[in-house]
Amino acid sequence: FRRAHTLTVLFILTCALGYVTLLEETPQDTAYNTKRGIVASILVFLCFGVTQAKDGPFSRPHPAYWRFWLCVSVVYELFLIFILFQTVQDGRKFMKYIDPHLGVPLPERDYGGNCLIYDPGNETDPFHNIWDKLDGFVPAHFFGWYLKTLMIRDWWMCMIISVMFEFLEYSLEHQLPNFSECWWDHWIMDVILCNGLGIYCGMKTLSWLSLKTYKWQGLWNIPTYKGKMKRIVFQFTPYSWVKFEWKPASSLRRWLAVCGIIFVFLLAELNTFYLKFVLWMPPEHYLVLLRLVFFVNVGGVAMREIYDFMDDPKFHKKLGQQAWLVAAITATEFLIVVKYDPYTLTLSLPFYITQCWILGIILVLTWTAWRFFIRDITLRYKEIRRQKQEHRHEKDRCLSNGDGHSSILDEQNGNKLRERKL
């Protein structure tokens, strides 16, 4: 039935598109016709995928919604592959087909400069530095971290990613002037106010979702209109709730998986800034916002698939399809950045930053070796030593009671008899 329904929808859509093309006279603009043909092809593919793609772990508000974003992931990955195989000049020119205002070099804004919170030299507005930093990206930071918390569902992981990204901005501000910010912009406005408040609100929402009663009733079985409206609103909440318990220190496998998740998150965050830099997209462009909306939808599904694969590998024997696509998209975006501007990426880090990163990597590797190798060997050695001491104590007690010699002989004779039988 589902396959027949799909063919019907595809047939109707194809007829509608064909009818539209027959009614109007085809323009002689090759670029316009190419764009229109590409958009029509994408619509047909999305229509097919929404009805035929494999369902993911989420079913609310409807499985077709998540199948749609899965197909958008495929389209976006194909678009990235196309951009990757173009020259730098052609790739930037191609962005003009999406928006004629693109393809123009953009000046990078430096958020550093005067870092005085109170500037006595400006008598009109001494706090002008603070007001200059309060732009549209402040609420974007807050809502971004609110949604990331709903995806990760762990306070420690969110805080680690938030703080690590600020360290990355410190480390890479010699490559992108956009990373140059004042110290209070890094730690007070970003980490504490925007990111911290978003994480706090996200954890409160998660707490409410975990306490909510998940008992569903059909819409037409609810007698009151108030109950019907409440049921419609709750359609956009999860069907059931799964609490994420990452437990990174429980095993080496989970520790490496959590480190990999943090690495991919940070790489995707960096790709946002580097893609704007190499493709000449202004930060406020709608394509940047659409990319963030895209990652919010596909990232939640990917995180659930990763957690299911880690938590119950016997039932979930392989990683989910959306998780693989997110990893592939992140890697392809990074390859585009490497190809389009290798000079910026190869700018050497300052010596003191290199020392800090080497020290941090050594500390992480040392803790990993101690926690999952040296500590286990030490605990095993202590357990064997404790068992030997208990055995020696039992032997001394038997000898002090006077019957140790006979019990030892009986034990030796029993061992000899068992050896003969074998």
TrEMBL record:
GO molecular function terms noted in the UniProt entry:
L-serine-phosphatidylethanolamine phosphatidyltransferase activity
Pathway, according to UniProt? Phospholipid metabolism; phosphatidylserine biosynthesis; Lipid metabolism
Which stretches are transmembrane? 6-24, 36-53, 65-85, 155-172, 184-203, 255-274, 286-303, 323-340, 352-373
Specify whether Membrane is a keyword of the entry. yes
Q: Could you tell me the Gene Ontology terms of the biological process aspect for this record?
A: phosphatidylserine biosynthetic process
GO cellular component: a single term: endoplasmic reticulum membrane
EC class (word): transferase
Known EC number: 2.7.8.29
Highest taxon of the lineage: Eukaryota
Topological relation to the membrane, as annotated: Multi-pass membrane protein
* Primary localization class, coarse: endoplasmic reticulum
Q: Which reaction does it catalyse?
A: 1-octadecanoyl-2-(5Z,8Z,11Z,14Z)-eicosatetraenoyl-sn-glycero-3-phosphoethanolamine + L-serine = 1-octadecanoyl-2-(5Z,8Z,11Z,14Z)-eicosatetraenoyl-sn-glycero-3-phosphoserine + ethanolamine; 1-(1Z-octadecenyl)-2-(9Z-octadecenoyl)-sn-glycero-3-phosphoethanolamine + L-serine = 1-(1Z-octadecenyl)-2-(9Z-octadecenoyl)-sn-glycero-3-phospho-L-serine + ethanolamine; 1-hexadecanoyl-2-(4Z,7Z,10Z,13Z,16Z,19Z-docosahexaenoyl)-sn-glycero-3-phosphoethanolamine + L-serine = 1-hexadecanoyl-2-(4Z,7Z,10Z,13Z,16Z,19Z-docosahexaenoyl)-sn-glycero-3-phosphoserine + ethanolamine; a 1,2-diacyl-sn-glycero-3-phosphoethanolamine + L-serine = a 1,2-diacyl-sn-glycero-3-phospho-L-serine + ethanolamine
Query: Mind telling me which Pfam families this protein's record contains?
Result: PSS
Q: Which UniProt keywords apply?
A: Endoplasmic reticulum, Lipid biosynthesis, Lipid metabolism, Membrane, Phospholipid biosynthesis, Phospholipid metabolism, Transferase, Transmembrane, Transmembrane helix
Where does the record place the region Disordered?
Answer: 392-422
Q: Where in the cell is it found?
A: Endoplasmic reticulum membrane
Record function comment = Catalyzes a base-exchange reaction in which the polar head group of phosphatidylethanolamine (PE) is replaced by L-serine.
Family, similarity comment = Belongs to the phosphatidyl serine synthase family.
Q: What is this protein called?
A: Phosphatidylserine synthase
Its gene is: Ptdss1
